[in-house]
Structures are given as C-alpha cells and as structure tokens.
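Input for the complex:
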Amino acid sequence: MQNEHSTARRRAMQSAVAVFARTTIGAAAIAAITFGMAAPSTAAAQQQLPTPRATQVPVAGALAALGSPPDPKVVVAWNRFYDHAGIMEISRRLAAAHPNRVKMGSIGKSTEGRDMVLLTVTNFDTGDADEKPAMWIDGNIHSNEIQGAEFSLYTAWYLAEMADRVPAVDSLLDDYTLYIVPSINPDARDHYIHKPNTASSPRTGLAPRDNDGDGRIDEDNLDDLDGDGHITQMRRRNVNGRFKVSPEDPRLMIPVRPGERGEYDLLGREGFDNDGDGLVNEDADGGYDPNRNWPWRWAPQYVQGGSDWYPGSLVETRNIMDFVISHPNIAGAQSYHNSGGMLLRGPGVPQDEYRPADVRVFDELGRVGEEILPGYRYMVVWSDLYIVWGGELDWFYGARGILTFSNELWTPFLYFYKDTERGENRYQTTESRFNSLLLMGEAMVEWHEVDHPQYGRIEVGGTKKNFGRVEPGFLLQSDAHRNMMFTLFQTSQMPLVEVDSVTTRSLGGGLTEVTAVVANRRLAPTHTQQDVENKISRPDHITISGARVIAGFIVDDAEAGTATEQKRDPATIKIANIPGNSVVRVKWIVQGNGPFTVTADSPKGGSDTKRSGQ
Amino acid sequence: MLPIRTPLAAVALALMAGPLAAQGRAGNTTGYHTAARLAASIDSVARANRGFITVSTLATSPGGRPVQLIRIGAAEGADRKPALLVIAGAYGPQLASSEVALRVVRELATRRSSSASLYETHTIYVIPRLNPDASEAFFATPRAERLGNDQATDADRDHVTDEDAPDDLNGDGLITMMRVRVAGGGEYVADSIDPALLRRADAAKGDRGTYMLYVEGRDDDGDGEYNEDGPGGTDLSRNFAHNYEFFTAGSPLHPFSAEETRAVAHFVATQDNIAAIYVLGMQDNLVKPWVGRRVPGIGGSSQGTSQGGPLTAIMPAENPWFAALSERFDATPKTGLPESPEAAGDPLSWAYYHMARFAVGSRVWWPGKAPADTAAGRKAPSSDPLADDRNAYRWFKANDPSGFVEWTPVAGYTIDGNPVEVGGFAPGARLNPSAAVLDSLGTKQADWVEELVGMLPTVSLQPVSVTAVGPRVWRLKATIANNGFLPTNTALALRSRLPMRVKVELKLAEGQSLGSGEVLQFVNALEGSGSTQEFEWLVVGDAGSTVTLNVGAPNSGFASQTITLRAR
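Predicted:
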C-alpha cells in the first residue's frame, strides 16, 4: 500500500515538474542559447537559499538535547550549505560573540582574491594561541567537496558555544589551539554553489588553465541547458540507441542487453560545443587538482594528471605552507574531503614510507575514529585507495612531521545504516531507494525536453549536484558532529608536556642534585619519528633556573642510575622527543639550595613549569 | 680530493671547487661583476639596443638584489616566437657562467644586424645571474664560496640560524680549508704522490688517518663542528623540483621555496614559446650527452607512470636529438670535464624532466689538462680517486699558482691541542677562469647560442591545394613542414601535454560545412630538417568563398593561409 501510494504521488509530482520545466525553465534556457550565452543561473534559486525569511528569535527550548548548546549565542542552521559570504558571516558572528574563544583572520588571498578565512579557536585567557599545541583543520580543497567547510565551522561553533558548559571542552581549549580554515578553495566553492555543476565539478581551483592543449583557456565549460543550476545528463531518442529506461525506476537509464533494441543515446553531461572545435565541455574553468600540487613526492603531469605546472604553483597551496611553516606548534591535522567514509593517512605512493613509530599512533587514532564514525574506515592512501603524488597530507607529514588525516566525509552506509553494494548497481539499489523513500524524489531532475544548439531536441535529467557526495540536510549535523568528535579526539591526543616532579638530593659540600620528571600523557609524541629523524622542529627544552648549574644530564635509566651528560649549555637540557604516554627524566648538579624552578618547553607540546618542593 | 661526500657537505663543496682566477688571488676580481655592476651593465646594453633588448626584473632576492630577465628579439611579437631560454648563475660560486651570459648578450647585440633574420622567427631569453646573493660572496672580504641566497637558514638543522660562519684564520683574504694533524683517528691522509692533496683514509687499505679536514675557521658556537652554518641560505642550484633532496644544507624547506627559483618555474610554465633551455651551470650534457644516463631519485621507473613514478632516464625517442646537440656543440673543449655533481634539484634536469623541453647544459670553463709529469714517483695511478683534484692542482701549479693555497701553519691556533694548517684550492678557482679569457668564452658561447636558436622548430605551411570534387564540393590538401632541426616537441612533451602541440585549425565561413576532416587537429612531434605532415579536408561551400587555415604553436612558430574555393 505504502509503495503504491508513493508511486502514484511520484508520478503526479513528476508530471508537474516536467510541465514546469518545459514551459518556464526550458524556455529561459533556450532563449539564452539562441543568443549564444551560457544559460543564466537565476532558476538555480530553486536549490540556492534566498535571504533568510525567518527573523523571529528561536522559540526557547525546554530541555537541552545532549551534545548541542541549548541556547547558542550564534544561531546557525546546520542543515544547509554556505557560500564564501556565508562562511565569512558565520565566522564574523562567532568571533564577535565569543571574543575569548574564537578569533577570525586570514591566511592569505585566493587566486581570485577571496580571503582564506582562518578561525583560531582556543581559550585565549589561558595562553598564547600560537604557543599551545595545535591542530590544523581545513576543508574543501576540492571545490565540489563542500561540506568540509560546514563541518569545520560546526567544530568552531560547537567548541565556542559549549565552552563554560562542558568541562572537557574547557580543558581542551585550555590546553590546545585549533586553526580552522573552512574552505581552502573559496573561489571554486562559490563556482560549485552558484554556477551550474555536477556533484563532481569543479574539483579544481580557478587559476586559468588550458586543459585541452589548444592554446585557449577555459573556453568550453559545462552549460546549463535548462537553467536549473544542476548539470545533469543529456539523452536523445534513437531507435538504434544503446540505452533504455530502467523498469525499476523511470528516472534511470540502463544499457540494453545484447540483441535487445534500445530507446536512447546518452550524450554526456549537459553542455554544448562552445568553441566550435567539435568537442563538448572539454575545457572548463580551472583544470588541475589542488591535492596533487604539494611539494612532497610531487610528480609532473606525465606521471599523474592535475599536478599543475610545478609544486606549489597555486597560491592557495603556498598560503597554507607559509602558515604551517611559521606555526611549528601544529602537531596534528585533518583535511576534510568527500566522499566514501574514509579516514586516510599517507603515504600516497608506494615509494614513500611512514615511520613505524608514527604508524602506531596513526593506527590507534584511526581505530578510535572508526568507532566514532560508523561506516567509516581507516585506510592508507596508496594501498587501500589509489596512488597520489603530491597530496596535501603527505606534505604535512613528510615535510613538516605533522600527524595528518584526510577525512572523506559522507558514506553511502548512512543511506540505510548498512553497507551498500559498490559499483554500477549502487545507484539503482541504494540511492534510488533512498531518493524515493527519504527524499520524496527530490534528488533527481526529471527528464524533460530542451533544445540543444548542436543535437537538436533532446532531453536532460539526472541527479542533482547536491546528491551522492554530500549529506542530505537531515544527516548533515549528525555527520558533522561525529566527524568533529574524531577531530577533537585527535586534538585531545596531541602532545602535552607536564613537569611531573622536581626533587632534590644533597650531594654535600654545597652541591645539590635536582631531578625533574617531565611527562607527556597524551598518545602523540612531542616529535614524530619523521620529525626527529629529519630535525624538522627544535628539541624540547627542559630548563632549570634559580641555581648555578655545574652539570646537566639526561637520565637514561633511573633504576640503573645511568645518565648522559649534556656538556654544552647544561641548564637547558635538549630532548629530541618525549614519546606518547611516557616520561623523561633529567637531572642537574647545581650549587645552591633552591627552590629551583624547572620549565619544560616543547614546540608541539606546550610548556609547563614547576618549583622544587611543590 | 674528496670523491666521497663528507658528513659536512660544505667541506666537500668548498674543497672541490675553488675560486677565481688568474691574477693575484686575494681580492682581485677584475673583469668579474658584482650584482650591482652586472645589473648596470645589462641595463646599459639594453639602453643601447632599444627595440631589440629589453630587461625586466624576474624576482628580487632575499638580499634585495634583482634577478634580471633579458629578452632579445623583435620589438613586436617576441613572446609568441619559438624561444631559447638561457639560465646562468644558479650555483653561486660559478660566476663565470654569469660573466659568459653577459658577454653572450653583448655579443648578440653587436651581431644585431648580421643576425637579423634569426629574430624574425625566434626569441632569446637570458637570466644572467639567478643567485646574486650567493655570488656576492666572491667580492667580499674574505672571499668565500657561498651557495645560499640571503635567506637566513639553519644549515645544520640545530635550530639556530647562521651561527657559525667561516673565519679567515691566516688573513689571506680567502676562505679555504684547514687541516688538523692528529695523533690518531684522523679521517684523511696526505696523498703519497701530491702530498698537498688529501684523501679519505681507508682502513681496509691500512691507511692510518692523520688529518681532520674542515672549512677554514673557528667553532664559533662551540658545538664541535666547524663553520657548519654560515650566512644564508637556499642553494638555488638545488631548489628546483626534479629529484629535490629534502633536509640537506642549502635545501631547508621544499622545491621552489626561494622566490628566485619559483619565478623561473612560473616563467617557463607560462611562457609556452620556450622550446629549449640552455643552462650555463654545474651540470653538463653537451660534452657527455644524457643518452643512456640514468638520474637518481624516487621512482626508479623507466616508464613514467603513476604506479612506477617519474622517469629516471630520458625517453628513448629523445636519444638521437640529445646526441646530435652534443655532437654539434663546440663552445668548450670536449675533454677533461670534471664530474657533474649529482642531479638533485638542479635547473637542467628540471627543464627536461618536468618542463619537457629540449634542455642542454654546459660547465662553461674548467682547468684544462695539466702537463704530464713523468718524473719518478709522480705518475698518477691509472684508477685515481683524486683524478679531478690532481689534475686541477697540477694545472694551477703550472698555469696559475694562486689557484691553490699551499698549506701553511696558523700561528697560535690549535684544535684540541693539535696544530692547524690552512690551504687548499682558492675559493671559486676551479670554476672561474682568468678574466682575460671570459670574452673569448663569451664569443664562442654566443656562436653556440645562435646555432641552437637556429635549430629550434620552425613550422611552415606549403601552399594548400584545392581540387573540385563536385559542385560546391572541394578537397583541400595542406602540407605542414618543420624547417628547423629539432622536433616540434620532445617525446616527453607529448605525454606531459606541455608545451602545446602544433595546432591545425580550419576556420570555415558562414554557409560552409565540412564533409570530412576535422576543424581542429594536432601534430605530434614533427621532426625537423623539412619533415612534413599532410592534412586533408572535404569542404562544402560556394565557389569563390574562402576558408582560413591556421597552424602552429608558440614553441614551433605559426603560419596561416586564406584559401579560396575555386578550381585551379
């Protein structure tokens, strides 16, 4: 009964949409084509959100729902997507409402001059943000993979709004800093949102490139024939065609079997031959992969397309590198992509190697991530996914020694909370059902006729750009929260040094032995093995003051009493690394009776001070 | 002397290369140009040759010095003509490369009229000194070999920058080497034939090491290392992306971390008329062509695929061309060339392996073959680990004694109680000749540059034939030729899709249509020396109407014809 009812309703809706398309949108598109212009995207307002209509103060809640601020200072709807202006506005509001928790800045300008907005989130009352151990979060390196921006904004919002409510949030913000750049590809983000696109276009940024090697730049974009803001498929009736309408779902096209007559040709993605070279959509805006442009294991285009001209050729790449190099307190990073439900670490190529001590940390973080994120899997880029030369995460780890994940947000698991069939049938078996049963069929543009300047009368239809790679609204906040919690779990496990004890023992004759135990009670080391081996960041310093230092030592084995003397500058003992969940001991022979003050100062582990006798 | 790299890279580099030339080592830099004088000289040549030579600033070094870019060619359209790019001065101590580049520019200016036809079809770009900061150390007191620009860096990765510079212990105005005689445990021994030369002690051969070897100077920061972190900087001759080595002295961050090198990368990437690149530098492939030579680096693949990684040798199809370029080269002697340093981040390898251009490199100058020494006990062993050092040492002894500073004790200075002697090759001596020969080197290199430019691909279009096939139906046949010597693209360029291939584009007028053929086609690497490729179209259109055929690419030249549809 339910199904019959749905089907009947669907048919009714279908025909309504089809009529609407033919009479209104279709006509607009045809007019535009006649004048040789790309169709305007005015009708895209169907999907894009107008200025908020609701101006009322939200109705007061009566009982808090756990995990959400009951009366946030900044009200943000997390069931929609925001363009660059929206990201700026949410960021401004967060910074204004929470001046001691969120500061807004920019790491530089994009190719087209947009700010790469930076939100620095910490408790600014408990220390210099740039001195605390820090986590880097970015989103949207691929412009169509948009929800990374909302997820990272959600993280800033959640932390700011839950501060002073949830002790664990306060503790996190006391100890750590989060540098959040919601979109590191803001130009093409706006392109994806405001211009007609598929779920997979554009992936690039918007630095102009000649994709097809004809000496002309960005001269044959996709074209929105029906002006609905979505680039769907084109089909044309043909008794000799090789496709037919699926008997399962009239919106789907399936190939005919051998010996069977078809009904349609499929003509590819919506568009026409803008430059008269006989090819359709062959040189769209941009034309590279920003996640192949990084200078660690970068490879030229003959090895892998999209790496662009040279490593770091893109200003967005360089802005991030400059920021990361000048912020050695960054110990961990996550880069939000979509999709597929993957918590990825490098290396991107089999010719590279992650150091074994670091792999153990990744493994533990990944294991917990899988627990936080049902349907997501912890994987290695090259061996579990595909080969990537010059990916962002490999530069972060390889060149800077930072523990970095790429998170592929959204997984088809979330359609029905079970693993889905992969491959060609996935759409028909899962996405089509989800579209029908949970989205009232809204995910698809019904097939409707348009005039094509080269193909004549054809039909366009298919999935909308905001289906398949991003969450539908009712799952957005849920997936944002779970991903955030994985990020915050990693943040909470970044190194943190603590002077555990400072003890003294008289050696007679005015000499005192001072022993300090310095702990790092988090999972991550103060220096990854990659960092230690390549001397990327400076050692941890353990400094004694209030004494005349005669000699200083690293205690190798407290029980056996063995120690290694540091002959130069013994007041400041240099420690190459304090591994996760461990302590180091140092000692000094000094003149004086104290009290002595010991400070541990780590580039990625923060600092702590304790006095003897405390 | 140091065939093996020591833990202190700077030691090896400073010892293997020494400085300048001829007359009076200390302080005499006659004939060589400081950054300011070089810039002024180039500006002056440009002023005297308006409409032919233009100068712009490609980048500004961290030391505030301009990296100049010179364009030589037609006043109009030069940036759309097949071009040669000459890069010099990437390796700071090798000033001769810059000096030769300057003289090439001057020489080309004097030949402006006699070679006028060259510039109707071609353009030359010259970057005369990529690393002006480093080269400036040549003019400082004391003179030193410096590789890095003025970007303060932490060469020894101890997280302190520029804390231990060399010191001129013997006050001769030169930073050379110092050797410390030790009772035991030394890393070097004096060579038995030429005791001024040191070689690494080989315990397996029973060598008892008697010397430690360092760059001349004190341990300013008391870390037990000597002069391991002097002023600067990023070594621009190792800052290019091909086989870049991370975490080494001179390579503090990543490829193209220096604005100077990134500006070159950006220039070549965007200037797609550059068909070939000539690097006057430390890497040679003109005396010893790349044919059969492997490059080190990650990948180890001869395929150049995503799975296998980047190429580790030039593609086989390039072999005849690189061999031919070497055969034609005659601007330097073809013998006695010292070993090129390992190809790691150098501009020449990058020009081919990443930018897919025909790329050639010349060392410009090196000490010639020393006179044979036949005295008893003076014959060099047949397999001589010190061969390059020994030849240079003997050459200097015979031709220019100031090129090698004999070891002399430093009074009142000991290391761990051991006596210290200072000596070795003078800074830059092995890279930079007497200024007296620079002009003749410049003339020979100018000849070669002109010859090389003449070899660049040059596309032409033979008269298009039109045959009437039927009423309003015409068959067009076009023949495209490459009258240069080099192919229109390297084989690698076809795979890299840069620079673009020769485009063949037929423009139809209103009312015309195509029966067969394509409006847009591309020519793969069309060999030179008049090789041709034919194209054919069937055009439907009124008799007397015209179609236009445009062929070419910025790196191969353009040609165009307007064709009237009429029987002839």
